[in-house]
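Input (structure):
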């Protein structure tokens, strides 16, 4: 007799308990603390592992990209300040990812038991009441950490992100593909605003990226991020999640894949056209570093965008689609934010020229 998802969840939840007491017998206070910390690190690593490219690597790439167009600022800033900025960014975005993942995984235990058994709850590293306690503690503590590291504006951005997570994943939790795409898009905007806030708190002369450029990146995300749904389509269908591949169904999937590929490749083509116009503008001939950055990052983005587009249309199976998103789509995202960091310098140049004129 086949076991249903509900039965699997009922049976598995009885086994989802913290590590047995005979595994954590302390030999002293220090040994007890060491084992508690080790256990918590294991839980955190399993919580964050799946989305670390999106939640931690992407903002660090964004941080590095901020300094690339301004090598003078990078060379004149003391290395201690740069190291402090990197440490603050890493801590803040570990918290940023944690407050999302703890909610996501507490509310999707049945799916994780079937599809993602490495996660801490189905793996038996974390019981469900313990996960709810960590949810409460992390949502209370993480904005305070952000405020201490980068000021009240960072805490405000953190709080806004938590409200958005609650709206999309807890209540009202509108089951529509638009909100799936919008969650990632608004989350990306919030992420890079937070990056700017962290760096500006330590280096006041740091050039903040204009909001309309961040909105361009968010627009790219909202129109293409359903790339992540293709490899989870079967699981989403069982969970009755109305993601875009589930909504269009098998008959419309081929057209959806072709449209998504065109959007990804088309966005890359727009970057090439913008770069060509910039190169032809004589006012930018003196900005060789900026022009070189636009050419290199634009070219790399187009390489990854084309790979994503072709792999999306090819449709080589679940593992193939997962690699398309996790590796190549994320590489396209990294190079896109690097390109936009260089592009903001061209806009500032145009403004300065118009003022002088």
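Output (sequence):
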């Amino acid at each position: 007799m086949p076991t249903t998802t509900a039965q699997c969840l009922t049976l598995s939840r009885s086994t989802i308990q913290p590590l047995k007491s005979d595994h954590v017998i302390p030999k002293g206070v220090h040994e007890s603390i060491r084992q508690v910390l080790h256990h918590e690190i294991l839980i955190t690593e399993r919580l964050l592992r799946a989305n670390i490219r999106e939640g931690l690597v992407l903002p660090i790439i964004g941080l590095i990209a901020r300094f690339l167009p301004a090598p003078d600022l990078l060379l004149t800033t003391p290395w201690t300040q740069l190291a402090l900025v990197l440490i603050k960014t890493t801590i803040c975005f570990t918290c940023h990812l944690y407050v999302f993942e703890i909610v996501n995984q507490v509310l999707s235990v049945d799916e994780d038991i079937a599809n993602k058994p490495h996660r801490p709850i189905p793996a038996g590293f974390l019981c469900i009441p313990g996960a709810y306690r960590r949810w409460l503690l992390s949502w209370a503590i993480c904005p305070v950490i952000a405020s201490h590291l980068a000021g009240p504006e960072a805490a405000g951005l953190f709080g806004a992100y938590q409200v958005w997570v609650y709206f999309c994943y807890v209540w009202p939790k509108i089951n529509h593909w638009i909100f799936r795409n919008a969650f990632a898009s608004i989350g990306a905007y919030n992420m890079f605003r937070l990056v700017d806030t962290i760096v500006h708190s330590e280096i006041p002369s740091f050039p903040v990226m204009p909001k309309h450029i961040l909105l361009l990146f968010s627009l790219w995300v909202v129109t293409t991020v359903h790339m992540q749904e293709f490899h989870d389509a079967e699981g989403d269908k069982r969970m009755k999640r109305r993601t875009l591949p589930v909504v269009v169904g098998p008959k419309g999937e081929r057209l959806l894949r072709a449209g998504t590929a065109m959007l990804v490749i088309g966005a890359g083509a727009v970057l090439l056209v913008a770069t060509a116009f910039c190169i032809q503008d004589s006012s930018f001939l003196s900005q060789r570093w900026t022009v070189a950055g636009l050419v290199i990052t634009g070219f790399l983005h187009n390489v990854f965008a084309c790979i994503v587009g072709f792999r999306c249309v090819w449709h080589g199976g679940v593992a193939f689609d997962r690699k398309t998103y996790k590796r190549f789509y994320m590489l396209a995202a990294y190079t896109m934010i690097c390109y936009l960091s260089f592009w903001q310098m061209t806009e500032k140049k145009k403004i300065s020229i118009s003022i002088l004129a």
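Notes: The domain at 37-208 is CATH 1.10.357 (Tetracycline Repressor; domain 2). The chain has two domains: 37-208, 212-349.
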